[in-house]
Backbone:
């Protein structure tokens, strides 16, 4: 009797697993009972011994994805231990570097754009992932605003890099991701700067200054969009001074066009690079 129960459980799981493969390859429309039965080498009638209908299979597939991508990942991360940074990296590898879970996760995200019930489930999964990031990052960063920002950026990098087709100027994607992780997981110092390590280097301490430059660029973009008062309502002396700096080539900030639309990490990097070059040349970068 125990053998029979085991066989039934495996067969049901087989339908679910094949459904998840179809979902990852072609989205929910690819999950068709007849096609799944053909790939499994069974009759379509056998499907109804385990599921009332196709919707029941889809629900079971989502249950499996949610359990494996949250409960099982978190359990394994805690079981294997390590410091908070190691746990964050391990959770990311288990979720977004896996040949099985990653394609399913991306397919569910696309599905959620058209199905509100799936969107609710995805939000629940993402909230649990964000909670784990907050807990881990909060163990070495006490500012709740910074914890939230770091958690969001880490999550966006983990998911968004799979959609990004850009090159990295001679660097590999793995090198850039390692750099981003080092920046996001660097411990703040008492002065508010971020401690560097072998991956981040001394420029990690210049992040606050570069962050100010990014916020200034964001403000200028809002002005261009008409979301805030235009330049004519600001101090004209400051406005002409900025124009004079650009005409003379001596700028403390990268040009707006070089930063607008970039990921904040890229803007931070550029701001730190520019500041270092400016100090080295004595502010003569724009001179002929």
Residues:
């Amino acid at each position: 009797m125990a053998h029979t129960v085991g066989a039934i459980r495996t067969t049901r799981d087989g339908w679910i697993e094949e459904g998840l493969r179809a979902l990852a390859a072609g989205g929910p429309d690819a999950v068709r009972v007849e096609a799944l039965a053909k790939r499994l080498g069974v009759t379509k009638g056998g499907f109804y011994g385990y599921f009332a209908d196709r919707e029941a299979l889809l629900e079971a597939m989502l249950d499996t994805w949610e359990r494996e991508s949250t409960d099982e990942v978190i359990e394994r991360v805690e079981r294997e231990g390590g410091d908070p940074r190691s746990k964050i990296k391990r959770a990311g590898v288990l979720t977004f570097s896996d040949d099985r879970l990653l394609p399913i996760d991306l397919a569910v995200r696309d599905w959620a754009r058209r199905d509100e019930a799936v969107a609710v489930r995805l939000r629940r999964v993402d909230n649990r992932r964000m909670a784990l990031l907050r807990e881990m990052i909060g163990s070495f960063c006490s500012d709740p605003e910074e914890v939230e920002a770091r958690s969001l950026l880490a999550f966006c990098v983990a998911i968004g890099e799979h959609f990004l087709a850009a090159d990295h100027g001679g660097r590999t994607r793995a090198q850039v991701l390692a750099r981003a992780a080092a920046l996001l997981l660097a411990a703040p110092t008492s002065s508010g700067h971020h401690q560097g390590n072998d991956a981040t280097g001394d420029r990690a301490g210049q992040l606050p200054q570069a962050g100010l430059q990014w916020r200034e660029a964001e403000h200028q973009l809002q002005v261009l969009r008409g979301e805030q008062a235009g330049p004519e309502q600001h101090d004209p002396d400051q406005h002409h001074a900025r124009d004079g700096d650009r005409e003379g080539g001596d700028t403390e900030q990268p040009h707006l066009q070089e930063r607008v639309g970039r990921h904040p990490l890229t803007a931070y990097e550029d701001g730190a690079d520019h500041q270092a070059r400016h100090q080295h040349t004595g502010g003569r970068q724009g001179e002929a």
Observations:
- Residues 2 and 193 are 61 Å apart (CA to CA).
